[in-house]
Structure formats: C-alpha cells, structure tokens
Write a structure and sequence with these properties.
Radius of gyration: 23 Å
Shape: globular
Order of helices and strands: EEEEEEEEEEEEEEHHEHHEHHHHHHH
Helix content: 40-55%
Oligomer: single chain
Length: 328
C-alpha cells in the first residue's frame, strides 16, 4: 500500500509500525537491511522525520506532490544520491542539503551501511499560512527560502558549521512533553538562519562523480572487504577496474569518507574486535592473520592505537561484561 501524508507519498516498500497523535513510525525494507522513519507533524504542511537506516542501499518511491521544500541533515554515516547529468553525490556527517524533494527519490546508497539524520519537509502551499497563524509578524517567507536555495538542478549543500550543529543537535532528543512546541521554535530558528545566511558563506562545492565511476568504487570496496587477508595496491585496483589512480583515490574518499588504506585499516580492526569478543577460542595471532596482519605484534600495536587497549585486555573486558549482570 502506498502511504500519503501532507502531500508526501512514501512508497510501496514502507510499512506502518505505529501511529499516535502527531507521531508516526514507519519501516523501510530492502534486500540489504532496513530503516526506521519516525515522523512528527509540527504545523499544517510541516513535518520532521528522523531517519535511521542500517542497510547498504534502498529504492525510494518518495514523492512530494506539489510545491515542496525539503531540508536534510546528516548526523551520522553518509548517504549517496543521484544528482544532475547521471552523477552521484554524498551527504556527509554534519552537512545540510536543501532542495525541492527531488533528490529524496530513487536509489539511495549508504556507503558506511548506516545513516542517521533528519528530514524537514514544507508543503509551501499550506505551511506558510500555518506559520503566519502561529506568529503573525514572522517575516520569513518560505517562497523566498525556496527561491534562494532551490533554483539549481543540483541540491544546495551547506558544510558542517557551529550554527547548523547547534540548531540540529537539539532536534534529535526532545522530551515528548515539550516536543511539538520545541520543534516549532527550532523550525522558526532554522528558517531565520537560512533567510539571513549569505548564500555562499557555508556552501559546499560537492564533488560529483559519474555513476559508472561510483559503481566501480563500490565493487572495489566489496572486493577488498570480502577477504581481509588480501591486500591490493592502488595500481592493481586501477588496472583491474579500469579507473585512473587519481580518480580512484578521490572518488573513494568522497564516498566512504576516508582514504582507501585508512578505510581498510578500520575494517580490519573492527573485524578483529568482533572476533576478540565473539570467538574466545581464537588466539590473538590467528585473529591477526585473519584480518590481514603479518604479525601479532603489528596487529596489537595498531589495535591499541585505535581502541586504547591491547587485544587481550579488550577480550577480558568483553568477557567480563558478558558475565557481569546489569545492576538496576
């Protein structure tokens, strides 16, 4: 069944979980995982939606019917969406994206297999009267905000900055008793900020990559993470996937948020932490070999640098937490 609220259709792969008063919880599923969307009505024609996805990708049938303004904020993870000319762009932690809703539709990828953020959507035809009735002398016009930020085919992305962090940090955990009034105040604050913001002050010139390039980068990542005992050079990967070394490095960093070797090091150490915690019979040397380290000494040094503890201490701490009951 297709879900429709405030002029927004969420798609056939979205199912209702819970609905009460101004709150609605929905689950989106795909072959790679699931995501939960918690939607709140703030004003007529205005919603705030918390998005918490644990998946690699999903196809979204999201459709804003009418004249819409959409604001997306990424708190954790990364989301990769299509933009103009068959190209792809990532929204990173702390960044804000403003558009007319067109980029919330289609295939979305989550390179880190996790995304947590907010969507604030305004139906321009009904939201403005609601804002005017709430505060009669509020000078900000939603149509002006839309014209200011949504004239290009590509979304307007604002880089992470203290002002954005302040506004949005307080939207992620609001007591239910004050939630609706607090959301209203924060939306007014956000609109005032966007209205006053100098158009190029925080704008991020996001690098765009052709979908063919991005598909190669995803294939490269899948190859490297499928066998952590194997290491590849940039030159090997470049030749195997027919992509220039410079483009490979730049595209990989943009999509996954770190250079290729840093990303793989973190993958190896994260896998090692899992094995230390869940495979007590495996020796540290065997774990080191399983994640691609030539010696237990090099592995232990890298693990301690990242976690602050040795592999053995990490295992002991994990075992202690498993056997010690929680005290109320």
């Amino acid at each position: 069944m297709d879900h429709d609220m405030n002029g927004i259709a969420f798609g056939t792969n979205v199912a209702d979980v819970f609905e009460k008063e101004d709150c609605r919880i929905m689950r989106m599923t795909s072959e790679t995982g699931e995501g939960v969307m918690t939607l709140y009505h703030v004003f007529d024609g205005v919603i705030i939606m918390h998005n918490n996805f644990h998946m690699q990708s999903c196809d979204s049938d999201f459709a804003a019917k009418g004249n819409f303004l959409c604001i997306d904020h990424c708190r954790e993870g990364r989301i990769e969406t299509s933009v103009k000319d068959d190209s792809v762009c990532c929204l990173s932690s702390g960044e804000l994206r403003i558009d007319d809703g067109r980029h919330n539709n289609g295939t979305a990828r989550f390179p880190l297999k996790h995304y947590y953020g907010l969507t604030i959507a305004f139906d321009l035809d009904t939201a403005q009267p609601a804002l005017d009735s709430y505060i009669s002398d509020f000078k900000v016009r939603l149509s002006d905000i839309s014209q200011k930020y949504c004239t290009d085919k590509e979304p307007y992305v604002i880089s992470s900055c203290p002002e954005i962090a302040h506004i949005f940090s307080e939207l992620y955990n609001v007591p239910s008793k004050i939630r609706r009034d607090y959301f209203r105040i924060k939306i007014l604050e956000l609109l005032l900020f966007l209205d006053a913001l100098e158009i190029d002050r925080y704008k991020t010139e996001k690098p765009y990559f052709y979908k063919g390039q991005v598909e190669k980068i995803h294939a490269i990542c899948e190859l490297m993470t499928s066998d952590l005992t194997r290491s590849y050079t940039i030159e090997e990967l470049s030749h195997r996937f027919d992509i220039a070394p410079t483009a490979l490095k730049k595209c990989f960093s943009s999509i996954y948020g770190s250079p290729i070797y840093t990303y793989m090091k973190n993958c190896r150490l994260d896998r090692a932490a899992y094995l230390l915690k869940n495979e007590p019979s495996m020796k540290v040397a065997d774990i080191a070999a399983a994640v691609g380290y030539e010696s237990a000494g090099k592995f232990s040094a890298a693990f301690r640098k990242k976690t602050g503890s040795t592999p053995l201490d990490y295992r002991k701490y994990s075992e202690h937490n498993k056997t010690t009951p929680n005290r109320q």
